[in-house]
Design a protein that fits this description.
Low-confidence stretches: none
CATH class of the largest domain: Mainly Beta
Radius of gyration: 22 Å
Structural class: mainly beta
Helix content: under 10%
CATH architecture of the largest domain: Beta Complex
Shape: elongated
Strand order of the largest sheet: 1-2-5-6-10-9-8-7
CATH superfamily of the largest domain: Domain of unknown function (DUF427)
Distance between the termini: 34 Å
Number of domains: 2
Strand content: over 45%
Number of strands: 23
Number of helices: 0
Mean pLDDT: 93
Oligomer: single chain
Largest sheet: 8 strands, antiparallel
Length: about 250
């Protein structure tokens, strides 16, 4: 592991593949994990493991104070050509050993695989842990003064860097007060979530409830359960009102 100007860099041993237009664009067991942002890494591939004949240099560059100047490439896969979807740091790269390695803009590619499992949203952070524990604690959820959920059988989900989440059986939730929405989010550790709004005492609170109908394998304990943003509603745990946490969802 190395750090330069607060940028963490580590070697990785997973096989990582990138697809566009039905073609494999990169395939490597020798990727580097680079924390361009503090929350999760970006995969960098050695040029030998990239279909460089499918990359065409563009005129676009971006300057990072911690990494240097990135030169961008258009990527062709099948019938698709996506502009400025790959990049590499070269002449003035601030990190030893990263010069010439290739990274891809995650959401401009069609699919990513870690080994044989498709991964969504971004690369998984090896320092993020998700624990899902059965509990008999009494959880009561109050929205706008109205009790919307009351359960003695929550699943407690603890995810690194985020508030504790309580996932509840729908039989313990006033589902008649919930209205499904079209909102969908994806998490690399849990899967694809659907959302509900809550109408309580004549007021509607949008997208404050979510659940995973078919989570990824390691999070199957929360399948079919729902959770509330405890940043936005009142949670009573064993009769004690919890302080609303501060987070990016507040």
């Amino acid at each position: 592991m190395s750090t330069t100007s607060r940028v963490r860099v580590e070697g990785g041993s997973k096989r990582v593949r990138v697809y566009l237009g039905g073609e494999s664009i990169a395939d490597s067991t020798n990727v580097k994990l680079v924390w361009e942002k503090p929350y999760y890494p970006v995969y960098y591939f050695p040029a030998d493991d990239v279909r460089t004949e499918l990359l065409t240099a563009s005129d676009h560059t971006e300057r990072s104070p911690n990494l240097g100047t990135a030169d961008f490439f258009n990527v062709k896969g099948g019938d698709a050509v996506v502009e400025n979807s790959a990049y590499q740091y070269s002449v003035d790269c601030e990190i030893d050993g990263l010069e010439g390695w290739v990274a891809f803009v995650w959401d401009k590619m069609d699919a990513w695989f870690e080994e044989d499992e498709e991964v969504f949203v971004h690369a998984r952070n090896p320092y993020t842990r998700v624990d899902i524990l059965p509990s008999s604690r009494h959880v009561e959820v109050v929205v706008n003064g109205v009790t919307v959920a009351d359960s003695h059988q929550p699943r407690v989900l603890l995810e690194t860097g985020l508030p504790t989440r309580y996932y509840l059986p729908k039989t313990d939730v006033r589902m008649d007060m919930l209205t499904s929405t079209e909102t969908v989010t994806r998490c690399p550790y849990k899967g694809t979530a659907q959302y509900w709004s809550v109408t309580a005492d004549g007021e509607t609170f949008d997208d404050i409830v979510w659940g995973y109908k078919t989570p990824v394998e390691e999070s199957m304990r929360i399948a079919g359960l729902v959770s509330f943003y405890n940043e936005k509603v009142d949670f009573y745990i064993d009769g004690v009102l919890e302080r609303r946490p501060e987070s990016i969802f507040s």
